[in-house]
């Protein structure tokens, strides 16, 4: 079974950058293959990882359901389950050391319950063939609660250092509980930090919860410049302060993982 690390946070907190850094760390330092899952409807993890998207789960689902509803011919007379299995496998973007799957935008009007259940089963079969899965979630946590990805071994909330940002992260934790998200260990990473005092504020906000404050990441002009230029996370040099800080957090985050499968 794959070890699943999921990241959640409101827009603009650097969640996708941390997801990209997590993939880089596991590939380079742990020498394990990764399935990266972009579960944010505003998909941009592919840009952080430097790969192009040729298909999303959402678009393939729409195409498959339209074909089924219209009575169109399915490849080889496949059942819906077989068709979705095939579509999921075709949607995976292969790269060096990792693969990427993009969920795409939420579904349109109409009932998708059966299609989502079939698709969830197909995705579980796919993810279990990797040692590790890294999920870049949207803030609503729908992908973990009821849609496509149903569990996480590590759920990490990402926040900026502001009181409002940290309060939003706490609300996400509360929401995860209300939605009965299946998660193992819970953590918080504070991004774009100038003053370490914000970590004490974070600890107070998450007091009496199982959320561990994992650490902070500094504001980094070099990352901002590379983002603006469209350069992927792999281009950050080894001595970069943000990269070093992220590696320190990730070493603690994945040191006890069950990533025992070979590449």
Q: What can you see in these coordinates?
A:
By secondary structure, the chain is an alpha/beta fold. It has a single domain (3-254), classed as 3-Layer(aba) Sandwich (Rossmann fold), CATH 3.40.50. It is 42% helix and 21% strand. It has ten helices and eight strands. The chain has an eight-stranded mixed beta sheet with strand order 3-4-2-5-1-6-7-8, with helices on both faces. β7 (182-193), α8 (197-205) and β8 (211-218) form a beta-alpha-beta unit. α1 packs across α10, α4 packs across α5 and α7 runs parallel beside α8. The two termini are 14 Å apart. The mean pLDDT is 85.
N to C succession of SSEs: EHEHHHEEHEHEHEHEHH
Computed structural class = alpha/beta
Q: Total number of helical segments? A: 10
Main sheet strand line-up:
3-4-2-5-1-6-7-8
Write the SSE topology.
Layout: E1 3-8, H1 15-28, E2 34-39, H2 45-49, H3 57-69, H4 80-91, E3 93-94, E4 98-102, H5 113-127, E5 132-137, H6 142-145, E6 151-159, H7 163-178, E7 182-193, H8 197-205, E8 211-218, H9 221-229, H10 241-254
Parallel strand pairs: 1-5, 1-6, 2-4, 2-5, 6-7, 7-8
Antiparallel strand pairs: 3-4
